[in-house]
Structure to design on (222 residues):
């Protein structure tokens, strides 16, 4: 258990301040990242699982404008909650952080997948969302997961795996999308460069955290 907790906490340190009072817990074990980051990566995880189960990771057709606009609009509350709380205009709490983070994370896979696969010269018939009820279904699934996390129902290891999976899926998909848009079309090369690019990004994040962010955190006792 100690090695698992160390891996989770090390991964969390790459992107989060990890303040205990702003983090959720399972029993007496604090989750690897704060409530807001937990929500973001739980949302990313939920949407990617949906796309994997429906075999749409190669979807080419973007969201319809109304759906995309609604999803992007629902990302705004997290930005507002974070900004206004940091400047002291409002007081927020872990429930608000978790659910606004969830709303921010849920749309990201639906935007990234067609961004990587869209062919400006093709027909792009594979839709990332095919039926109207799929969007509320994904959001309800994410909300249920968030409620379970908030109430400490999800075991520590499962919650940590959700965060780590969401985090790695996001980083690797961002790298994949950038490489795919460079027209590096041969699949084996694309996957290989995606792996190398992901490792490079994670290494850079580790060095930044270890030698810049963590010393600053200790200096100012953040």
């Amino acid at each position: 258990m100690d090695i698992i907790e160390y891996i989770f906490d090390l991964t969390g340190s790459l992107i989060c301040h990890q303040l205990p009072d702003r983090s959720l817990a399972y029993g007496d074990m604090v989750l690897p990242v704060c409530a807001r980051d937990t929500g973001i990566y739980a949302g990313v995880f939920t949407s990617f699982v949906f796309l994997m189960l429906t075999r749409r990771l190669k979807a080419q057709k973007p969201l319809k404008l109304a759906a995309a606009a609604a999803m992007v609009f629902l990302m705004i509350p997290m930005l507002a909650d974070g900004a206004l709380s940091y400047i002291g205009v409002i007081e927020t709490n872990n429930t608000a952080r978790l659910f606004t983070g969830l709303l921010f994370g849920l749309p990201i896979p639906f935007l990234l997948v067609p961004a990587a696969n869209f062919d400006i010269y093709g027909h792009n018939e594979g839709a990332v969302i095919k039926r109207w009820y799929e969007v509320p279904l994904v959001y309800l699934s994410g909300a249920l997961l968030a409620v379970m996390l908030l109430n400490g129902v999800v075991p520590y290891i499962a919650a940590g795996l959700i965060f780590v999976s969401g985090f790695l899926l996001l980083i690797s998909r961002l790298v994949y999308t950038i490489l795919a848009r460079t027209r590096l079309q041969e699949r084996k090369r694309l996957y290989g460069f995606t792996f190398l690019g992901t490792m490079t990004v994670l290494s850079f994040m580790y060095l930044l955290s270890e030698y810049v962010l963590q010393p600053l955190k200790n200096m100012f006792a953040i």
